[in-house]
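#struct-help
A.M.: can someone run this one for me? Single chain, 318 residues.
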Amino acid sequence: MTNQHFKELFHRYEHNPILTSDYWPYPANSVFNPGATLLPSGETLLLVRVEDRRGISHLTAVRSQDGIEKWQIDPQPTLMPHPEQYPEEMWGIEDPRLTWVEELDKYAITYTAYSTSGPLVSLALTKDFRQFERKGAIMPPEDKDAALFPRRFGGRWVLVHRPYSGFPGSRANIWLSYSPDLKHWGDHSVLIEARRGAWWDANKIGLSPQPIETPEGWLLIYHGVRMTPAGCLYRLGLALLDLEAPERVIRRGDEWVFGPDRSYERVGDVGDVVFPCGATVNQASGELRLYYGAADTSIGLAVGRIADVLDWLKTQGR
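D.P.: on it. Structure tokens below:
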């Protein structure tokens, strides 16, 4: 039942989930956590995390004219782990974020490589999602939830990511790092801290889709993880960064804006999870689409409007 006192910013597509392993042209355990982009042709492309029946993940591209149905799925995996050349991919590759980088005339894919020492951030470039230029690991473990901004700031590339030490009592915060060449990274700094106590985003947060440029700033949709007696609960919140200085947080909302509610989000391989790695924006209409993993099992679509999200941050953010 919808709470009538809360204005929903994101509305679920009525025929969710839009993609499940039943659609897949080859055996798969689950499909979830897709990166997303709009291609020059107008098609929507999702780069989907596919977990095989061993438990190892790879990435597969799917395309749709309307971004909702009639998905054309690559008949074989699009990007597979390559542990012989990239040993950090020993246990799979996961959770891609996609950024079109005009300077490079390529898409940057930041993804989690699962190494024997834990997850870390890797980078690949592509023009067409068929041929890939792997750059390898760009952050050591444990690190994930990364995306590249689409342009340089002060001559340097900027990466959003989520390192985690694992020390008792430590928190998993969102960080920024800077690079002159997409290989050597430094000037690491905390961007947004996980709160403490009973908050929905206490102790562990991370970037969800890639940063979204708006007239008022970079929109950051992030996930918070609340530990409950029944397990982890993943929900989404909002923040806004300065357009020219992304290390400056203009506003951050206190309340979560989207969380697991439907049965396909609450029951699955990992229950009570909504986890978008990709978003698209229709520049003409202002429509914002979130493509999210539901319970680590299937893919859902939620739709909002950039103007409504920014208005919410003006009134609810601080």
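A.M.: thanks! The CA atoms of residues 33 and 138 lie 21 Å apart.
D.P.: also worth noting: Helices lie at 263-266, 306-316.
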